[in-house]
């Protein structure tokens, strides 16, 4: 009849948040956090993940159906346990004690479950009953003390069964009265905004990150192949593309290495290099992908080249180096503003985002390149890569391109008036309503004053160089009645940032609060921002995104710091959102990392976001991921250890007890490797990998001379892109 009460362990509780089933692990975390007094104000489940909205109706613990820590199967288990216990009661017992027993058992479903079962003091046994407020506890004890031995196998609690309630209730007391049951339900502060994204006092959205990759040289793009393998392909500006597997490891051999053709330099802010990568929408069938890079043509003319390539028949994780088919080349009149985005729209056509050519103020020709529809610079181009044109072109122009019949206009132009769109993305649409599906969002980098986010429409004139953001840049062109331009959905001034990096609309599964938020950033200031559409007036409202609260991000594997220079955003095959950043933005510097966004306020219900990657044969060695960023929990642990050491140093009397309390859990903490697993990882840990540095050594050597020389030549960094 007596069952083991296991509120904090057991494989059935195994959430992705805690890949290792470990009561000790929990104990240690609780100790460190409890020690720091940081557990408060932080909804958290017993598996240390954020609470969630159950996928299905909870029949038993229905108080926690809207938001909490139980899914339907957990609810069923609790109900079964309840009925087992109630078997021991007669009718009157049912009447008097049924409610108490249900309440107590259901606390595992509370969004504050981690606090209710708190084990702050490692000297005492783990709580296996929730913290009860004294009035409630006394009432329970006086009416139903015979139930105690049925609810717990804790000897001390069982021992207090027959005694007066004071001892029992003392054992179940929580230091913070707001958090005991049932006060925790009544506290407005704890219950309003439950499950809603946390904000700081300035209204800044509180998100956290996991580190996914590091050691990359200016990672400019991360894309997936849409083939069900859930691999992601990360391109470095120098021209090397790496394959990452769903277990977090990286293949030692690159997917593609075009270092010898790609034109770039180590100058900070050099905008030339390997800039874009996109897989064919039918990649699964045709193995084709597309690349966008800077190179030198005849007579050393700088140009951008867009090519098609195929994957090697011998190895699905390698490009066939002989397969390159050049689709388009455009001469670049200056080294900056080279665009670089490639993507496929829902229409199956390839969209190419070029820059205005460079220098400042779009000086080329009568009125610049961007407003000149005969030039391919400063444009969004749309082409059909699935056929050759009639005029020896390596692509076909879709018949419904907007300017096909306009004399003098290049037929590939889809939209114009673009300065240097840096990162564009297609919205997958709301997972249920599909609202927003197919929209293309871009960040267009500004000249002197404004950075903007645009929604790309067919035939649209995005204003440059007549306008920068909402304001006139070239007054004469700006006041031309035929300008008919499309304004940005959002623009910000240079006090906020000086080079926008376009992002993605979040449509993933793991962080449901983020659905519909367009998340982007600024390369120069390192700011992360989000836009949300007001569906009534179609206006976009900006919210800042903040990281860095150790309180909010105190979950296993989460970090709250990142490298400042935000180069690009990315979406994995499942729709989760990432960004690519570096601490030193030189194309040769191996200081780039990839981070994944995590909402600490609410996760998806367990089991909802599972997917099974299509297995892919690998020939190359797998290099395990080794994180370099410190997790929030590790930082807290260090602080706690410091505080404990300081305390033992200052108080000789306490040395013994401190030793007992601080060292014991520390020595029992699982290796930091285990702790550092990111929440999204289903099974295998992401472990140490030298990152691409290992391969890089050789390349760096050969480049060293060039690097030093060019660095000297051009110390002055330019603001990029
Ligand atoms: Ca250029
Ligand atoms: Ca514009």
TrEMBL record:
GO cellular component: extracellular region
Range of residues in the leader sequence: none
Composition skew (Basic residues), residue ranges: 674-686, 694-721
Keywords from the named record: Disulfide bond, Glycoprotein, Secreted, Signal
Keyword Glycoprotein among UniProt keywords: yes
Domain Folate receptor-like: 56-205
Domain Glucose/Sorbosone dehydrogenase: 216-544
Compartments where found: Secreted
Chief location of this protein within or outside the cell: secreted
InterPro entries: 6-blade_b-propeller_TolB-like, Folate_rcpt-like, Glc/Sorbosone_DH, Quinoprot_gluc/sorb_DH_b-prop
Renumbered residue ranges of the record's region Disordered: 644-721
Family: Belongs to the HHIP family.
PANTHER family documented for this protein: HEDGEHOG-INTERACTING PROTEIN (PTHR19328), HHIP-LIKE PROTEIN 2 (PTHR19328:SF54)
Name under which the protein is recorded: HHIP-like protein 2
Species of the source: Orycteropus afer afer
Phylogenetic lineage: Eukaryota, Metazoa, Chordata, Craniata, Vertebrata
Gene assigned in the entry: HHIPL2
